[in-house]
Amino acid sequence: MLRDKGHKIISCILQAAILAAALSGCGQTAGDINSIAKIQEEAAVDTGEVQDTPAEAAGDTGEAQDESAEASGTAGETEDVPEQSALKSTDNAASADDPDEQINDSYEDILFMYKEAQDGKYSDKEVERMGLDTKLVQYGWPFASLNEEVRYLYYDLDSDGSDELIIIYFDDIADIYGFDGTNVRHAFSTPYKSIVELYPDGMLSLSSFIGMKYSYTTWYQYDSSFADFLPVFEINSDRENGESCYTFCAYNMSDEERKEVEDCYNNYGSYPVWLHEWSSEISIQEYEKLLPTASPVKLPAGEKIDDLKLPTDRTPRLKPHAAKTGTIELTDSVQYEANIFISNFAEQRHNGAETYTLSGDSDIYDLVYFAFKHIKMNSYDDLTVDGSSYVLSLEKVNKVLDRFFGITLSEEKAEEFYNDDYATTEYYGDGNFYLIAADGEIFGDIAVVKEINELEDGTYEMLFDVYAPSADIYDTGEKDAKALYHLRASEAYDAEDISWRTTGSAIVTPYHYNGRYTWRIVILYIDKQ
User: Fold this and answer.
1) Which of 85, 90, 230, 385 counts the highest number of beta carbons within 10 A?
2) Cis link prior to 320 (omega < 30° from 0)?
3) Does the pLDDT of residue 119 top 50, yes or no?
4) 167: left (phi over 0), alpha (psi -120 to 50) or beta
């Protein structure tokens, strides 16, 4: 195998992107709480608990921001293939004697999610909230695109007798789903401004450009046992300095390496990090020998998502997208408690991402980092420093996660915490999380809740704005910072010494925590700042 045999496999942590290609509930409510009024009446009682408010200073967490490159390419000649079967009738249950019927039936929920989103003209946030992983949102789907051009078809990628599900948009592949024998898996999505070509026997090429000088084509091979595309080799082109070709580790894997990949799928749901990395350079002649000799596949037109009919007894996937049943009055106590609660998220200043999203189902790294920054800003004494790392116990992390999400991390789950980029300073061990110890003065933002809507599923929608207080509020003592949490939306925008930064929304549920009534987050969004 053409990779560095000394390369040590140190992690199976998932990554959301391979170069420029994106392949791609919470805890139960505690307590019998029937109205937001009751929550706030109880919350107004002084229980002796210290309110969580933005601290005067916090450190630079050193979080790396994702970068993506715009890409484009050209498609080659294609060959026609026979029309594949359309979606099986949803009126009949799958037959236990028909494996193909069972596989196709397992794709129905995915298709119904597309149909639900398209019929409801969901926003990209709502599509994400319902758990649908699709790059169609890059084109404004489903609320602002030509939805009649979204189609689906079944096609046997690797000629093993079992179909995969392909979503196409304007005749181009948008998303691919596979079935691993037990579960449907999201196998691939085409990044924006990239060209994908599918070849016989499950080979797929992704071509992208980075500016005017650089381009690359990554080749993937579909593996039905994992129901996923594995990266196998790539060509990088530098128009000024020539070409370099590399093989990925997934090419010609040994039995031992394949077992490692299988273990990673079983434990983490995806292939290990080292499959993203190429190692040994090969000549252009060797590279060309690896390329498929057949022409790209020309897929059939497929069926329109628009023409699907949702079962009348189907429960919508987007439960937080429930109808509003009323608007809660923002009394003084409700306004104050709501501002403080959301400020615990707004204070962390989530710069860089288009939308910052956090829920109890978020990646463990995001959850731990939320707890870490919350503790750093509100109870710094709970941190210790060991060399270049902050040390934070699992117990203290779980206290924060229980408070805001109603969840805790098990020891086994905590062991998944790992950062490849900072392997020596960010990891979990001996009951503690180790995180980068970098300091820098910042001041926490505040949130001002504009509206609270009661939803028919028992949750509440909070709409809010985020404001940045000036430094003198904290430094000079001219104003009491806590007074800011009493601000109403009508007052905040024109208030002195604070400036508007961004907006956000949250779905929350009533929560009885540590003897008092409050909320916990179902899912929270903060727009780019």
Assistant:
1) 230
2) no
3) yes
4) beta
Query: What sign has the CA pseudo-torsion 504, 507, 512, 517?
Result: positive
Q: Please state, rounded to an integer, the average pLDDT across all residues of the chain.
A: 74
Measured distance CA(3)–CA(361) in Å, rounded: 35
Reported as a single tens digit per residue, the pLDDT across 364-383 is 888 999 999 899 888 888 88
The SS3 of residue 139 is: helix
CA 248 from centroid of its chain's CA atoms = 25
pLDDT tier at 173 (50, 70, 90 boundaries)? very high
Distance CA 180, CA 256 (A): 21
Number of H-type helices and E-type strands within the chain: 12, 23
Tokens of 324: 């509003």
Residues belonging to the chain: 529
Site of tokens 């809660």: 328
The string of DSSP codes covering 180-195 is: -SSSEEEEEEPPTT-E
Q: Is the pLDDT of residue 175 over 90?
A: yes
Measured CA to CA, the distance from residue 343 to residue 51 in angstroms comes to 11
Where do runs of H (alpha helix) occur along 243-357? 255-268, 284-290, 332-346
Q: Which helix (H) or strand (E) holds 115?
A: helix 108-120
- Full-model pTM: 0.48
Contact 190, 170 (CB under 8 A): no
Per-residue CA distances from 366 to 357, 378, 424 (Å): 9, 18, 19
Q: Which residue type sits at 67?
A: E
Widest Cα–Cα separation across the chain: 77
Angstrom distance (rounded) from CA 451 to CA 480: 25
